[in-house]
Design brief:
The protein is of the alpha/beta class. The chain has 16 helices and 13 strands. The chain starts with a strand and ends with a helix. The chain binds uridine-diphosphate-N-acetylglucosamine (UD1). The site of uridine-diphosphate-N-acetylglucosamine has 18 residues, from α1, α5 and α11.
């Protein structure tokens, strides 16, 4: 079987690593990198650390407004699919690359497999929500990480070829955590001791593109009782400059860094006192690593982390973030809601059965 995998943004490289390895044991994979993320710190370093094969095709779509970026990727992917005639197209998550890949394939009547299907924030102002809803409705075979995700699909009338397989990021965390522990020097580089610091990230449009939200978040981080490592996404840096708010980064407890590699981030997160983030992936990683989390959004797709007491929703509100952080604890209850780290072989098997049927 010839499977075309479409990736483009940082979390997709992480998700593709375990599955790409499983696919290549028995099948041919054509790896298409849309170029949505192109900075070496957001792209190349992930390929190196995760042992991902170099992309077969690099489309170099780059940044831009949602419409123009998605359109460039759509046109590029379509051309590749027509030329390469894969049996199936595999897409991950909810980025513009996901939407472009699934749309290009669906229009050419090539079956689409969606990994991380069924997640919903029920907030249609998020670009990711549009991307994931549309992708799910164009997919032929859907891989849900949680029961809740499968229930969301049922409510939307999607029940055929839906598989509950666990979360592919869990495979990555379990495989790479011991390697990160051996190889990462991030704690000594930043002069940190385990459990004596927090990790924070901000990159969602709703937070970076809003002057008020960004100010609330940075003010909250400056109030925390421990050092806060803040690997700054280019989008957040861009908007801080635009609103001349860069002085907020000078708070004495903030340690601002460039975006970190996967192994450094995994090691940093695993040893943190707490995580504060608006990232979906990091909420999950915090849970898997048993680190409590404050989510600086109004809603989350990873409702299980909140239900089991490991994650608190605080929106982008200084007082709420501070209150949520102050009341964090590490619950004794920690069910394996994201699977057992064997999601990749399960997905492979289901794809093979689907294609044979
Ligand atoms: C994208 C995804 C988001 C995902 C995130 C992971 C969408 C709609 N959003 O957000 O779901 O959680 O990736 O990180 O697909 N930029 C650089 N260098 C790069 C790439 C981007 O400097 O290599 C800057 C550009 O100014 C760009 C901005 O970051 O305009 C935003 O990049 P974009 O690809 O639009 O989305 P992300 O915010 O990274």
């Amino acid at each position: 079987m010839k499977i075309a995998t479409v990736v483009g943004a940082r979390p997709q490289f992480v998700k593709a690593a375990p599955l790409s390895r499983a696919i290549r044991q028995h099948h041919q994979e054509l790896l298409i990198h849309t170029g949505q993320h192109y900075d070496p710190s957001l792209s190349d370093v992930f390929f190196q650390e995760l042992g991902l094969p170099a992309p077969d095709i690099e489309l170099g779509a780059g940044s831009g407004s949602h419409g123009s970026q998605t359109a460039r990727m759509l046109a590029g992917i379509e051309e590749v699919l027509i030329r390469e005639t894969p049996d199936l197209v595999l897409v991950y998550g909810d980025t513009n690359s996901t939407l472009a890949g699934s749309l290009a394939a669906a229009k050419l009547h090539i079956p689409v497999a969606h990994v991380e299907a069924g997640l919903r924030s029920f907030n249609r102002r998020m670009p990711e929500e549009t991307n994931r809803v549309l992708t799910d409705h164009m997919s032929s075979i859907l891989f849900c990480p949680t029961d809740d995700a499968a229930a969301n699909l049922r409510r939307e009338g999607i029940s055929k070829h839906v598989h509950m397989v666990g979360d592919i990021m869990c495979d990555a965390v379990l495989a790479f955590r011991p390697i990160a522990g051996k190889q990462s020097t991030i704690l000594s580089r930043l002069g940190l001791s385990p459990k004596r610091y927090n990790v924070a990230t901000v990159h969602r449009n709703e937070n970076t593109d809003s002057e008020s939200n960004l100010r609330h978040i940075l003010t909250a981080l400056a109030r925390l009782d421990r050092p806060v490592v803040l690997p700054l996404h280019p989008r957040a840096r861009f908007f801080l400059r635009k609103w001349t708010m860069e002085s907020l980064l000078e708070a004495s407890n903030l340690i601002v860094t460039e975006p970190l590699s996967y192994l450094d981030m995994l090691h940093l997160t695993g040893n943190a006192h707490a995580v504060l983030t608006d990232s979906g992936g990091l909420q999950k990683e915090a849970y898997l690593l048993r680190v409590p989390c404050v989510t600086m959004r109004r809603e989350t797709e990873w409702v299980e982390t909140v239900a089991h007491g490991w994650n608190r929703l605080a929106a982008a509100d200084t007082n709420r973030i501070w209150e949520a952080y102050s009341s964090l604890n590490t619950p004794e209850h920690h069910p394996s809601v994201f699977g057992d780290g064997r999601t990749a072989p399960r997905i492979c098997h289901a794809i093979e059965q689907y294609m044979e049927g």
